[in-house]
Amino acid sequence: MAMPHTTTPDPALVDAGAREALCLALALLDDAQARAIPYEMTLALAAVARSYHVLHARHSAAAAFALALRWAQASGSADQTVDLHCEIAETAAREMLELKRGLEADGETDPHAARAARRIARERARDHAFEAARLAPTVTDGTWEARVLLRASEVLEQCGDRDDAMLLQSRALRLMSDESDGTSDPSLLPSLGRLADA
């Protein structure tokens, strides 16, 4: 009889898969470095960061994400930069929740160190979520801007910033309403470079 898809994967297999993904990401990074194209460097470094995060190498993941962000900013691509801010915020929020679960379940963990790490992850999540929201009006279109705001809102909700999360949701809903009505509000056009009030 076939194993059900809901079976918990063997941790050793997950670890092996994550290490293989890291090797592939590092090979991709080597190729990207040979060309030094900012867009490709950003993609490769983000892939490396994701792989490190899965392996719980949090400092290496944070360093790779920071480099990816610098390359994204150098590329001049607002979409890539904002998307990366969202991903870093989401990754930090997941890390914060993982650390919280570890504190609740694992009596061997140093509670002071775990709480400090959790605070750092929370602040990183908040910082990048707010930066994504600030830069949201610079992305390609209103639909993408609304998605960015909703992603940032979800992170802030996980961090306990419910009021800020609701404000971003309201901004996103206004944008989606304008898009569905077929109307264009010049104050929301990314080309004007106006940053919406947060």
Give the structure's gist in a few sentences.
The protein is mostly helical. The protein has helices at 11-35, 38-54, 58-75, 78-105, 111-135, 142-158, 162-181.
Q: Mean pLDDT, rounded to whole units?
A: 83
Q: Supply the number of helical segments.
A: 7
Query: What CATH architecture label of the largest domain applies?
Result: Up-down Bundle
What CATH calls the topology of the largest domain is Methane Monooxygenase Hydroxylase, Chain G, domain 1
The helix fraction, in percent, is over 70%
How many structural domains? 2
Output the radius of gyration: 19 Å
What CATH first level of the largest domain would be assigned?
Mainly Alpha
Determine the strand fraction and express it as a percent band. Answer: under 5%
The strand count comes to 0
Shape: flat
Low-confidence stretches: 1-13, 183-198
Distance between the termini: 55 Å
Instruction: Please give the oligomerization state of what you see.
Output: single chain
Q: Give the SSE order as H and E letters.
A: HHHHHHH
Class from helix and strand fractions? mainly alpha
Largest sheet: none
Can you walk through the features of this model?
With 198 residues, the protein is mainly α. It has 2 domains: 16-75; 77-198, Methane Monooxygenase Hydroxylase, Chain G, domain 1. 76% of the residues lie in helices and 0% in strands. The protein has 7 helices and no strands. Residues 1-13 and 183-198 have low confidence and may be disordered.
